[in-house]
Amino acid sequence: MLTVTLHLKKSQHLNQYIYGFLMLQRTGVLKIKSINHDDSLKKHILRANINGLKIVYDAEDGDHFERGFFSQSDYEWCDFYYKRSCSESLLIKYTKCRPLTFNYSLTPSYSKIDYLNQNFRRLMGKGDIRHYDLEVTPFYSSQPKILFITGLWDPMESHDPEVQREFEEITMKRVSILKTLKRHYSHCATFGVNGDRDFTRRVAGEFILPKRLTTRPQFISMMKSHDICITTNGLHNSIGWRFGEFVASSRAIISEKLHYKVPGCFSEGVNYLSFNSEDSLLKSLSCLLENHDMRLSMMLENQNYYKNHVRPDILIMNTIIESGV
Q1: CATH code of domain 132-310
Q2: DSSP per residue over 168-224, as a string?
Q3: pLDDT for position 212
Q4: What is the value of pTM for the model shown?
Q5: DSSP SS3 for 134
Q6: 65, 105, 198, 250: which one has the fewest Cβ atoms less than 10 Å from its Cβ?
Q7: CB within 8 A of 151, min separation 6: which ones?
């Protein structure tokens, strides 16, 4: 049996990887000796020692070395460095690097008591999410529905001019999508903004949704009943967490073109359609709404990719196998 020691600075970005290790422990594949919270580590970094082999899981949003999105010290420590936002140039420059697949938010159970407490919180609708909550079998629908529920970022929430610029661009893009859906697809789309605050009221007041519709359990329930889901890239051109959720739920996806690599076969035109303007968004929507066979095929492709790469235990097991432990 594999023996594992984990070190991390606590971060929600890492929950999917912890969750995967715990799943493998429950099935008897490995034994976790300890999970150590270490504030001296960089944010979004998980160090794993597996039978003496050192693996790093880097869940940062970007790959820009100059902005601190790559940890040189962790790279020097490890035998393999698995990176969420992994570009081709990073793979060429750092030979120990490997791409990680899509991320999404899950709630690890560290003990039986923790698991029972989570069950209580789940009954209360508190949002403790497990991997099977997102899983759904794709089916053919003669009246497909579109989903786009998003958050907006106030540029003034950051002191970094570069981040402010990114916040502004992302917000403008998301508001534009909302307006496009309102003009063309109000009859078959669910769309809106989560978060009723001064900024969202100012830039997208007409699109603010009631809080009861935007809790995480409610969002997941809605997502599984909508065939086509739209998302945008996140900060630093990262692949957003919504994308990972859509893959886990076997949805047909429309997204901006992906800037980072993922393991396995995942491609534009097969697993998702891209857009970069209102016209291209409308074209992709029309394609998936009208071509039922293509839409179902995409959903099945994403279900297959989830089962082989994204499900947390499979994600971690793939890195262990590839590393040759």
Answers
A1: 3.40.50.2000
A2: HHHHHHHHHHHHHHHHH-TTTEEEEE---SHHHHHHHGGGBPPHHHHSHHHHHHHHH
A3: 86
A4: 0.95
A5: coil
A6: 198
A7: 193, 194, 195
